[in-house]
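Folds abound. A case:
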Amino acid sequence: MSGLEALVASGSIVENVALGPLTTYKSGGPARYLIEVENLEGLERLTSSDVLSDMPVLVLGRGSNIVVSDSGFPGLVIRLGPGFSKVELDGSVVSAGGSAPLAQVARASVKAGLTGLEFFVGIPGSVGGAVRQNAGCFGVETKDRLIEASILDLVSGLIETRGPDDLEMSYRHSNIDATRVVLTATFSTRPGEVAKGLEELRRITRWRRDNQPGGTFNAGSVFKNPPEATAGELIDSLGLKGTRVGDVAVSSKHANFFVAGPNATSSDIRRLVDVVKDRVFEETGTILEPEIQFVGFEDDH
């Protein structure tokens, strides 16, 4: 029995798992295989087997920045379970597991009288995703607060500790590829007043509610901001709010958000991204680069 067969037989790996419910767009087909790992030992057992030798791998966090193809993902999806979500504070250093929600990290630090991570409350992702994509908002990026991250190479099984420079972090980018998993990350903060920190969390939350679509299926910003203007401003300037493909439309509230209805397909989302991208290029000469990740498509962006 192969390592894959053994893990399937034991129930550790589950076959044909719907991925739509695990993403904020709620669309897309199934994963061929999925495993949720609760601790480092579980990941080490996976890397020491032959499971990862001949299939694509997707490390899936909170699904807030991803579109899965309607045909699904033909490989193994790895999710870090609650065992990787612990948030710990040591003086002014905040340590968090890869699956910890960013909002949880923000609130825990503020309640402890620490400031600097409030911006995380406005990002609906996990610590691992934030490090991998150098997530940011309100003029602050993950790299500005990251001290170091512990990263497991799923191919070699080696664990490395890397800082922002080692990770080559830049705007919505790092060198962490699909075969590496962020296990933990540590962040620097400064002492602050709890009351002021709580007010900052409320301010960010209010801004998001007033300026971004809520109560809808979306994946946050669709495109990265080009140097000359924000993607939302460019899209809005061309009158593209409300542009629709199938059951997906450019938000009337924020043009860099695409909102999906209950009948939306991932193909609808992909086509609308292409429609908007092509129109912006035709009218302005600017090439918009998607911020969301397309998974399982034949020609992934």
